[in-house]
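Could you please consider the sequence and fold following this short note?
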Amino acid sequence: MKRKAAFKTLGCRLNLFETDAMVTDFYKTGYEIVPFTDQADVYIVNTCTVTNASDHKSKNTINQAVRRNPGSLVVVTGCMANSRKEWLEEREGISYVVENNRKSSVLSLVDAHFRGEMLHPEDLKPDLFGFSVTEKGFHTRSFIKIQDGCNNFCSFCIVPHVRGRATSRPMNAVLHNIRQVVDAGFKEVVLTGINISRYCDEGICFEDLIEKILQLDGNFRLRISSIEPEGFAEKLIDLFSHPKMCPHLHLCLQSGSDKILLQMRRQYNLRQFYSMINGFRKHYPGFNFTTDIITGFPGETDEDFMQTCKVVEDIGFSHIHTFKYSVRQGTRAAKMSEQIPESIRHRRSEIIREISETNKIRYRKTLIGKEQTVLVEKIRNGIAGGYGEHYVPVEFKYNSEKNAFRTVKITGISDGTDPVLISS
């Protein structure tokens, strides 16, 4: 009988890519991939530790795997495996703790275990880019890892401590990987990493890499995942005129106060941020921007917060990932005075979420009467669902094949807490 493997991913798109690659490894080796709630021989938890909430979710997920399935192999990897390694290794029921730089070799560790061999995670070869080409994953899109780590050391961020310094994947390896996934039938390629705007390989910068990717043959479109508003040139704006580019960026703002941005050690100010936004919208009026906001950073006054509210309303981000500031030990912000009470952080995050919901509906209504090219991801009862090029969900009548592009005219917007665009 086939051994069964179950996976759970928390956190960023980079984790999603790495899980999909691990799923492919296990599937091609003969494992049956089952839901995380099912009985399995091995559970792989790909953790996140960017906030206290992330830590809590990761711990709960690990506990679920251990308590529900005594005797099964439990492997914990991801950023918590770096930040809380010793604590995790002491937890009963966790079989192995694998740090990020050895994550691509989890299958080797599991196979050795089931063969009765003694192999320690430290024996695995470190390789940030040693992941398989995704063939059997959980997503219609194919995530492509182009970079890992970060050198910025923002005062609130633990990521450089758990992911290490910035490292770029060789350009030829990236291009080869994209050719492979396109040949395998993927229609959308999403570039991911920790700080992809700082990509650099032997003089090839991020914009140069994009240009090379757009020259590849194949019926696919290219999407850029979360990107820092720093370092990229006017050339990137020009590249979005290419028909393969998706007119959407998740551009991380974090705060609308220059004072707070400075204390966060961000690499830009509001004037520069607005210049980037206006540069894109001058050429592409309907361009979709989403962002991250941290509420309650140490020293954030009511005035600072109101400035943030004004900025996110003015720019009209169609979605805002909102985070209450979390103290991360080892970061500069953890030592700052004027820590904001939890109740204020929570109230401010709720206000930003309300603005986000208003912005979302307002932006989606601007697409009514226009066409969207949708990548069909699911079909249920004759209704297809997927995302248009602006990264907005669309539903329409259709009962053919998934993983196909269909261009539809938007006629309305649904009701509910997360309204989708509709083509009747």
Remarks:
- The chain has four domains: 4-123, 140-246, 276-365, 371-423.
- Residues 140-246 form a domain with the Transcription Regulator spoIIAA fold (CATH 3.30.750.210).
